[in-house]
Amino acid sequence: MLDAQSAAAAPPVIRREDYRKPDWLMPDVHLEFRLDPARTQVAGRLKVTRNGAHGRPLRLNGDGLTPLAVLIDGEPQADAWRMDGPDLLIDLPGDAHVVETRVEISPEANSQLMGLYASGGNLCTQCEPEGFRRMIFFIDRPDVLSRYTVRMEADKTRFPVLLSNGDRTASGDLDGGRHFAEWTDPFPKPSYLFALVAADLAANVDSFTTKSGRPVKLAIWVVEKDLPKTEHAMAALKASMAWDEKVYGREYDLGEFNIVAVADFNFGAMENKSLNIFNSRYILADPETATDIDYDGVSGVVAHEYFHNWSGNRVTCRDWFQLSLKEGFTVFRDQSFTADQGSAAVKRIEDVRLLRAAQFPEDAGPLAHPIRPESYMEVSNFYTATVYNKGAEIIRMLHTMLGPQKFRAGCDLYFARHDGTAATCEDFVVAMEDASGVDLTRFRLWYSQAGTPRVRAALSHEPAGARALLTLEQTVPPTPGQPEKQPMPIPLRIALFGERSGRAFEEERLVVLEDERCEILFEGIAERPVLSINRGFSAPVIIDSDRSAADLAFLSAHDDDPFARYEAMQQLMVDTLVGAVSTGQADHGPVIEAVRNTLTDPKLDSAFIGETMLLPSEAFIGDQMAVVDPVAIHRAREALRRDLGGQLEGEWRDAYERSRANRFELSPQAKGARRLRTIALGFIMASGAEDAAGIALRQFEEADNMTDRQGAFGVLANSLAPERDVAIAAFYDRFRDNGLVLDKWFSTQAFSIRPDTLDRVEELSRHPDFTLANPNRLRSLVGAMSGNQLVFHEAGGRGYRFLADMLLKVDGLNPQTAAKLVPPLGRWRRFDEGRAALMKAELQRMLDTPGLSKDVFEQVSKSLA
Ligand code: B3K
Ligand code: ZN
């Protein structure tokens, strides 16, 4: 519980039900920026109109701003305005006025990286969700859409490139070595989509012709030496543009599309209209410095931000409670794009792994919220795996239940109806209903209820009548503020396989479990059936079934849905490991046999084999247990790794040799081979073979690409062999000047399972290359350590203390990024009393710290509640 003092300090709670349409609209906006890193002058000229009959003043949001001048219809004002906290209130007599304000801000002093800030000597903006108000007084809410014209002035040598949204309508030189540019965006947009860049950067320029023949100039801006690393991002951009035309009928709508990469960024990237700004880790890629996972990250994020041009920009969100309207939908779109570019099965496995690693724990913990939350203190805390990834699963279920044609018709109707406006999740569902004729009344519960549903599946067989009966029962667990839940429609793709024949009995069925319970009868089932359920992960739920180890091993070999094969193997591994932790006894036999079958199945591709061989993470195993015992989990998992390594050593060595590439290629086959190769290396190492560390060091040294080098580095970082120190030193020497690769150097060491990892992490936090100011670097050390179950939960609480210390320091600089680091401590309820007390004590210490940001306050107070 919050004590009186903390409760008094609590920031106000914003509720969805309190939504009111804006008092004033702002059809036209003109902004002027006299740019300078230390002192930038900003002037705003806003045409405002009263929205409805009321006498309320104009409220312009501000954050840390002091008005230097306020003018109404061109007249300077002394008394017509007043400050209300950070906001500026202006009494306006008429229904339409022109309001001007002027402020001065310091981009180089902006450590929050929200609003206008400096990164690597360049200036850029981040406005979503509420950064715009840090630059000028404004109606900073997503349902107020304006046409913008922008004039920027800056020193020409220092900032030769001046970019904003829309089209450049004027530019030229000024006295004193300065120059200017004017940009006009013809599309009305909310403030969160505004962007500006003043920089010394070079562009990779290309072009795309839309299907209706409109030429678009594409440019990716980076520091000049990085130009060769932008080819993959450019290819992904063009592929995304073509895909959105083909699959959704959506064309790009302006003459140019710019992407700017910066090194200091709070998250992945930002979809500002025609001027996307990216964390450089999602733009830059070449074989020497980027892993295959990095390459996939680049194309996925480029696609995601591009797709927002329709799902987010042309149709935006009425308020921040509707965030999943654009984010869930756009994640679904980028997932589908990636699935179409390569292996759909592997993509689905990766997406589900991420959902289970990031979203399921959120749904099961103190920060659980529905994809459309009901309230918040700080909206930045709601850019969550629930809003994004569970949100995408909810769109995917609509796609599954309606089928691709009706789903597409629903999207077309949604875009046609709401183009140029700020919409709600409800608008999206209504468009789907209207276009498909399907009643989605109960489906709406997925938007309002938090928590991961559980479905119990029991299959009984009656050989005499050749019948099988499947009973399904759902429960939706209580979550904070939602003790009681209603059953939700759960679409489950289901098939039965004959245990002896190995064949499916009939076509796969799509069963929608509408109520708490249902029974499904299968006829013509002569031999004992094995149940394959939630195929393709058709619903974001947990399935509890009593399938035996033999059934799971059977499915892992015979199921014709690749996801279901993967899933059966995972379940077999999880059951084995959970059993081992709770009984202390382990029978690894069935897992070893199943792994042997998959590993030596010539029909399977390496990427799929690699995915299937990955053991469930320690965190995921913990999620299955009543009380998490990190040490016992680690031991059980390592014992299984050792046994798999030792008993299949020959097979691993074959797989390792088979997947040795001659030269680097980015084809799915080559990527799959690299994936399997490092996984095999890990198992050879786990086998304890004497030559293993030598093999790893050879891979590390001879690699012609970062995937192989980083793979070997990760394996060595876990080991006690002297080769580990050789690799750490060599990696640093080779990449000390490349920030993105240095992040890997930090994170790989922080993920190590060596007993001295926490000492090493503390040492690294004092390393000259470590800094709290760069979010990527911070996450690479502190974020990685708190994801390392064994190390973070070290008895005695040193990991907890380290995280809390770091977090408090970061909060003073960058509250948004600090708040993202809180959730691992919020899981205290899942641990033994000793650990839980230590975790709570750190949360309490933070809560008791004066001057905590509202970002961190919200996360910490909810974690303790
Ligand atoms: N819309 C942005 C996220 C903004 C996050 C603000 N805390 C990027 C994206 O989802 O595409
Ligand atoms: Zn997004």
TrEMBL record:
EC number: 3.4.11.2
Catalysed conversion reaction: Release of an N-terminal amino acid, Xaa-|-Yaa- from a peptide, amide or arylamide. Xaa is preferably Ala, but may be most amino acids including Pro (slow action). When a terminal hydrophobic residue is followed by a prolyl residue, the two may be released as an intact Xaa-Pro dipeptide
Peptidase M1 alanyl aminopeptidase C-terminal domain residues: 550-865
Pfam families per UniProt: DUF3458, DUF3458_C, Peptidase_M1, Peptidase_M1_N
Membrane-spanning parts: none
Keyword flag Protease: yes
Domain Peptidase M1 alanyl aminopeptidase Ig-like fold residues, every copy: 451-545
Keywords: Aminopeptidase, Hydrolase, Metal-binding, Metalloprotease, Protease, Zinc
Molecular function terms from GO: alanyl aminopeptidase activity; metallopeptidase activity; zinc ion binding
Cofactor dependence: Zn(2+)
Domain Aminopeptidase N-like N-terminal, residue spans: 90-193
GO biological process: proteolysis
The keyword Cell inner membrane is annotated on this UniProt entry: no
EC class: hydrolase
InterPro entries xrefs: Aminopeptidase_N-like_N (IPR045357), Aminopeptidase_N-like_N_sf (IPR042097), PepN_Ig-like_sf (IPR038438), Peptidase_M1 (IPR001930), Peptidase_M1_dom (IPR014782), Peptidase_M1_pepN (IPR012779), Peptidase_M1_pepN_C (IPR024601), Peptidase_M1_pepN_C_sf (IPR037144)
Peptidase M1 membrane alanine aminopeptidase domain span: 233-443
Superkingdom field: Bacteria
Family the UniProt entry places it in: Belongs to the peptidase M1 family.
NCBIfam families: pepN_proteo
PANTHER family (UniProt xref): PUROMYCIN-SENSITIVE AMINOPEPTIDASE (PTHR46322:SF1)
Name of the protein in question: Aminopeptidase N
Organism this protein belongs to: Rhizorhabdus histidinilytica
Lineage start: Bacteria, Pseudomonadati, Pseudomonadota, Alphaproteobacteria, Sphingomonadales
